[in-house]
Design brief:
The chain is of the alpha+beta class. Helices cover 24% and strands 33% of the residues. Strands 1, 2, 3, 10, 11 and 12 form a six-stranded mixed β-sheet that branches. Strands 4-8-9 form a three-stranded antiparallel β-sheet. A three-stranded antiparallel β-sheet has the order 5-6-7.
Amino acid sequence: MIDPAFPDLGADLTLADTQAIDDCWNRIGIHGDKSCSLLAKHIHCRNCSVYCAAATRLLDRYALQQDDHHLVGAVEGDGDIVTRSLLMFRLGEEWLGIATRCLVEVAPLQPIHSLPHQRSRALLGVANVRGALVACLSLVELLGLDSSISPPSGGRIMPRMLIIAALDGPVVVPVDEVDGIHAIDERILKTAAVSGTQASARFTQGVLPFKGRSLRWLDEEQLLSAVTRSLT
């Protein structure tokens, strides 16, 4: 079940879904009173077959929920200047931006637990976010980026996890760095969309100047559709 302290993650779960998954790890397991008799054997709940089965059911829910969900985003206005909010983040050496309307939260990096019989190359496994099992995907794989490039090093650089409101429920994607949310003039976005090289980069609407470098402005609808396909 979803932790009531994190209601956003449970927004797409039906009552039947939550009743079907027994979150014993939150009651008698490592996040509960630790009274489970299997803890002595498995040390941690993530090593238990019950935890693994719950993660599998989570992924099954993504596969079965194919309702026609629509993202609704508001464009902020300030007088005659219309802006759109984008979250800027980095993967390796590349900076990317995605509309904040599909973002649930920026969270600290959590351990990712791999699953047997992975369904796709992009599926890294699951992450435990405040007691809720959430599917974790690789944007590097989805976007076709070069995974061999090492990210810049520095004491102030802190990897993060983006919790994204995908079409059939939230997913987590690890990123190397988050710069923040920026309001971009719609006129700049229109110019970027015209001059951007959409055909040569996956799920890209255009290319923007950002801190002396180029930033890929992601097409969130295409990206979220790819996320859904990777989970089914």
